[in-house]
């Protein structure tokens, strides 16, 4: 349970509609099918996982409580159609579901980046879910929630972040076993600084995989600086 959920029943409705937010910023979407679009990112604080290669550890703690009204209003000031709710693990705060709904109601194209460890079945169907399947190199592959797969629609995406050849072979076995590419788009991405992008590209081509390779565009542009 996320901090603050335990006392929500005793708070007034306005206060109960709050989320702990690490940052809200506008940047270029660096990943997924929306890569390249100017996008507002709403980063929720907290994550129950600890992936070895996590690049957003600063979002594990801290941030501040914001009302959902306030968040939606701030997003509007950036004047972008695309909004990405991310973390940390955004679904670790239950009221994230309300935020997603409200952002869709406001007319945005909303995507959700989630670890794949928590239930996605209650996410508003208008939201594009980008669900990780954690490979062994992350150290968190036992947390994959396989029951999420039937909840994925053709508009959603499954993402593998791969640290080495063993991760790649593991991902291929999962792809084949669950026929993931028949359900939605599948993304393969190299861990920055661990697996050479060209090597991954050559493996994908050699194996004729029905997957889409992607690089993290924001890292090419700005490196690992928070706020991008
Ligand atoms: S799920 Fe995401 S935020 Fe959480 S530890 Fe893994 S990479 Fe970091």
TrEMBL record:
Signal peptide: none annotated. It catalyses: 6-carboxy-5,6,7,8-tetrahydropterin + H(+) = 7-carboxy-7-carbaguanine + NH4(+). S-adenosyl-L-methionine binds at residues 53-55, 88. Its cofactor is [4Fe-4S] cluster; Mg(2+); S-adenosyl-L-methionine. Mg(2+) binds at residue 56. Keywords: 4Fe-4S, Iron, Iron-sulfur, Lyase, Magnesium, Metal-binding, Queuosine biosynthesis, S-adenosyl-L-methionine. Substrate binds at residues 28-30, 43, 86. GO terms for molecular function: 4 iron, 4 sulfur cluster binding; carbon-nitrogen lyase activity; magnesium ion binding; S-adenosyl-L-methionine binding. [4Fe-4S] cluster binds at residues 47, 51, 54. CDD domains: Radical_SAM (cd01335). Its EC number is 4.3.99.3. GO terms for biological process: tRNA queuosine(34) biosynthetic process. It is an enzyme of class 4 (lyase). InterPro entries: 7-CO-7-deazaguanine_synth-like, Aldolase_TIM, rSAM, rSAM_QueE_gams, rSAM_sf. Residues 34-224 form the Radical SAM core domain. Pathway: Purine metabolism; 7-cyano-7-deazaguanine biosynthesis. Pfam families: Radical_SAM (PF04055). Binds 1 [4Fe-4S] cluster. The cluster is coordinated with 3 cysteines and an exchangeable S-adenosyl-L-methionine. Binds 1 S-adenosyl-L-methionine per subunit. Catalyzes the complex heterocyclic radical-mediated conversion of 6-carboxy-5,6,7,8-tetrahydropterin (CPH4) to 7-carboxy-7-deazaguanine (CDG), a step common to the biosynthetic pathways of all 7-deazapurine-containing compounds. Homodimer. NCBIfam families: rSAM_QueE_gams (TIGR04349). Belongs to the radical SAM superfamily. 7-carboxy-7-deazaguanine synthase family. This is 7-carboxy-7-deazaguanine synthase. It comes from Pseudolysobacter antarcticus. The gene is queE.
